Structures are given as C-alpha cells and as structure tokens.
Amino acid sequence: MSDKPPISERGAWSLAWQRFRHHKLAMASAALLIVLAVLSAVAPLFEIMFGIDASRVDLLHRFTLPTADAWLGRDELGRDVFVRMLYGGQVSLLVGAVTAIAAAVIGTMVGLAAAYRGGWLDALLMRFTDAVIALPFLPLLIVLAAIDLNKLGIPPALINSELISLYRIIFIVALVGWTTSARLVRGAALSIRERDFVLAARAQGASAWRIMGVHILPNLVSPIIVATTLSAGKIILLESVLSFLGLGIQPPVASWGNQLTNAQELIYSAPQLAFFPGIAIFVTVIAFNFLGDGLQDALDPKSVSHASTGR
Amino acid sequence: MTRYFLDRLVQSLVVLGVMSFVIYWLMGLMPGDPIDLMISADPKLSSADAERLRAIYGLDRPITERYFNWLSAVFSGDLGFSRQHAKPVLTVLWPALGNTALLLGLSFLLAIVIALPTGIAAAIRPYSKMDYLINFLAFAGISLPSFWLALLLITLFSVILAVLPAGGIGTIGAEGIWDRSRFLVLPVATVTVVSIGDYIRYMRSEMIQTLRHDFIRTARAKGAGNGRVVYVHALRNALIPVVTVVALDIGFLFSGALAVEIIFAYPGMGKLIFDAIMGNDFNLAMVALLFATILTLLGNLAADLVYSWLDPRISYK
Fold first, then answer.
1. CA dihedral (A283, A288, A293, A294) positive or negative
2. Is A309 domain-assigned?
3. Under CATH, to which class is B89-310 assigned?
4. Which chain A residue is nearest to residue B142, measuring alpha carbons?
5. What is the pLDDT of residues B61-79, one digit of tens each?
6. Domain residues of chain B, as ranges?
7. ω before A252 within 30° of 0 (cis)?
8. Residues A281-307: pLDDT tens digits?
9. Cβ B277–A135 below 8 Å, yes or no?
10. Domain for residue A224, yes or no?
C-alpha cells in the first residue's frame, strides 16, 4: 500500500489500468485472445511437433471423431480439424484486427476533418456517412465480394495470388465499416474543439494540422480504442458469414467461416464438424465484446450507457 | 418539423438515386455478362455473332447511357425479367418480400416482448447477480454467429430429436397455419436470439440512467411504490432511445436475416438476393437490392419520426 503514490499523482492511464484489472471478465477475455493469437501463430510448430500436415488430404480417414492423434477429429477430406482451426484463427484474427484498425483510421480522418473544418465539408461528409449507414449491409457486401476483379483492371498476378480473398475481404469490410468511428470522432472532436486549451493553441498560431494531431486527437484515443475493440468482434462475425457463404476467404486458405461451409450438407453424417469452428468464432467474438466493455468502463468511468458485466 | 422531414426525405431520395447507379455499375462488374450466358447456351455462336448481339442489346454502349436506358424503362414500369425464374421481376419479388416480413415481424415482436422486461429486471438492481447473468446472456446473444446457431438448432431439433423441419416453408400437400408455423419456429428462434441481446442492453442502460433522475426521486418521495415508479414514471422516458435504436434496426435486421434464410431454405429477400447474384440473374439482383435499399432508408426515416413523436422536447430546425 505505502509504496504506491497517492491517486492524485498517478496518470490517467495508470488509473484506467487499475479499473481494468478489477474487471474480471475483461481480463479473462484479454488473456483468452492472447492465448488464441499465440496458438494460431505457432500452428506450423504443432504440425512439426506432432507430424501433422493440415493440408494433406486423406480420404481413408474422413469424419473421424476426436482421437489422440487428431484432437478434434478429421474433416470431409480427412484433414486435421484442430490444426486447420489454428490456421483459420490466423486468418480470422488477422482480418478482425487489421480491418477494425483500417476502419478506425478512415473513420477518424473523416470525423476529424468534418469536425475541424465544419461548414460545407462537415455537411458533405456527414450526409455521406448517413448515406453509407442507411445501406443494406450484408447484401451489399455480397455484391462486393462477388465482383470480377479482372473487370476493375487489377493486375492478374495479384488476382491469382492465394491471399487475394484475404485482401479483398479486409478492403470491402473497411470500405463500409468506418461510419461508427467517423460519427464518434466528429461528435467528440466538436466538443473538444471549443475547449479553452484548443483556443489557447489557436491563439498561439498553431496550424490546423497541429491542433488536430496534437491537441484534439490524443483526447479521442479512449473512445476510439473502445469502438475499435467492439468492431473487431463484429467484423469477425461478418467475415465468418461471408466465408461460410463461400464469398469470403476461399479454400484452401482456412478460416473458421469456410470450415463450416460444408457442415450443413454433412449434418446427418458428421454433425461434430459443425461444432468446433463455430465455438471458436463465438468465443472470440464474445471475448472482444467483453474486452471492449471492460475498456469502456476503465477508460471512461463516467459513462453508464454500456456499463457492464463482471466488475 | 415538416421542413425537417421534407429535407430528410429528399436526402433519402438522393441516396437512393446514387445507389441505383452504384448498384447498376456493380452489376456490370459481376463475372460474366448476358452474352457470355448466351454463348454458353449455344455452342454454335461465333465471336462475330457475339459482337453483333452486344451491339443489338446495347452492351457496347457507355455505362451512363445503359444506366439511363434502364432507368427510363423502370419509370415506364418495366423492371425486367428474371432469368432464373422466367417470370417478371416483380412477380418473383412480392412473395419473397412477404415471407421476409413475416419472419422478421415475428422475430422482432418476440425479441421486444422478451427484451423489455428482461432489461428492466436487470436495471432495477444494477450489479446484482441477476444483472450479471442477464448481461452475460445478452452478450452471448450478440456474439453468436447466426448461421452457426441455425446449424446447431437444425442438428438438435431436426436431426437428433426430429421434431421440426430443417428448412423450407411448408409441406407439399399440407396446408394451414399449423403446418406453416412448424416451419417458422427455427428461423424465428434464430433471428430472435441473435437480435435480442442489443435490445436488452439498451433497455437496461436507459432504465438505469432514467432511474437516477430527480423526477424519480420525487415520485418515490410522494410515496409511489417501486412497481409504479418503474413501470409508470421511468418506463416511458427510458423507452424513447430504445425505440429509436429498434426502429433503426428494422433495416439492419432485413439484411441480417440473409444467412438464416439461406440455411433454412426460406424463400425470403435475403435468399433471393443471394441466389440472384450467384446465378447471374442481373435484373432480379438489381431490383431486389434496390428494394433492400429502399426498406433500409425507410427504417431510418421511421426512426427519426418515432423519436420526435415520442419526445416532444426534441425539435428539428
């Protein structure tokens, strides 16, 4: 007790950490996501250690139930479900994180520009944001996912690369997913813009870029972090739906969604295949949601609006 | 107020106009075009024939010209012909719209009927065991992938227990409400579970905030019982933001049910749009997407309208 400085001398981040630590579910979620990320990252190690090749087709051992050498059984092509799920985890977590961050960056730039410039630019950007929000999300994503990239003049070398479906899904989800953070940033920036310290900076002749970057943006970091965490969960859900429908990540690249694509046809012969990848999606998304909730309580203790579980 | 709504209406129409062009353009970027389909249907077609056909159908014209041709046809009442169904587009569209409205309407009502009392129960004693449990379940609902829940429900109720049909909307030969509703149970349950979490959380947080207001303390001081305070004084105020969120959701729900419709082979708008895009049925996909856009825009307009109607303090310039 005595070696800690009094509350008044500790920084805002240290206080936030104090609050976050007491949010048990959020702490557990953070730990779980780290474990999932590490396990996915070392998927090749698993293959070497246990002598498994996750992409090797073995038609003589299809649909086997979980055993000692294939922990979660084998799929319709006799591939190891567990190791393929680790590879799927790489893709799903990567898509979730990269897309959420890309959407947050776009949204932050749009929101800041609208709030700071005001006037016609604000009106234009916000009408545009409203318009994007008022679009039917999933049908539009399906159209964007089905587009023939050759007709857009994209180099064939890129189109034929195995990872094109990964780039494509990150791009199209970010393209429609930036609106939440744009509105959030604009709203918060508008109120901060009128505060005295911004006025003081302007009186000293600071440029618009400096005011936005040095004075306004740092004050927006907490709401942006919270919104980005929550949106990562939503994006993983979207990716899984699109991949499940055959429009997201394309086999042979594994993702949790496309591991479930054949599950419906196999529901009589191998119902266990529908189970594990779905659990992985569910657990990951709920962890992102608890984490976002905990971060909200920790970074913005005054807000009641989404207060919370597990304190 | 009227002025504000006229403005919003005009804005929505502009969005619709722009989207109709964007969707038209996107349709042109789909793999294959109508002439490719004719070539695959008739192996004797030469590339010179294909060029001639392109010219006849105007496919060699610039996109803006083709778009305005399409648009003028639409305004004269010709929405085109569906390739897959071999029927006029609207004849295909109306039943699908009705099916989706039924699925979403039922799920929506069910979700609201469960979510409001549940959210209030959590809000009455915030941070109690009950509150944690409700919150946890709400989060679980939000985080469930709808298509996976649908698969689990089919496995349990159609495969293992074999008590409910796995898909479709009716048994051939059997008519009537009973048969129809058996087919609706699983899809409605799925959509309800994945949409209810948000409603519970909104209801709960609005109720907690409302219960902190002075007028609640006044009501208690005047001797109003707990039930009266919550259900008469607080509920009306707490409902305002909830209703807005819920109205905004109507448009969202509409596209959110897409995966559920596909899994249950439920012939609604979501499945229609998906099948049309996958099957190169450009006319149908185009019009169905426009309908989806119109419905989402209407949901947004309705949210604004309901909001100002419920809360007279809000005045729009």
1. positive
2. no
3. mainly alpha
4. A286
5. 888 888 888 888 888 888 8
6. 2-83, 89-310
7. yes
8. 999 999 999 999 889 888 876 654 443
9. no
10. yes
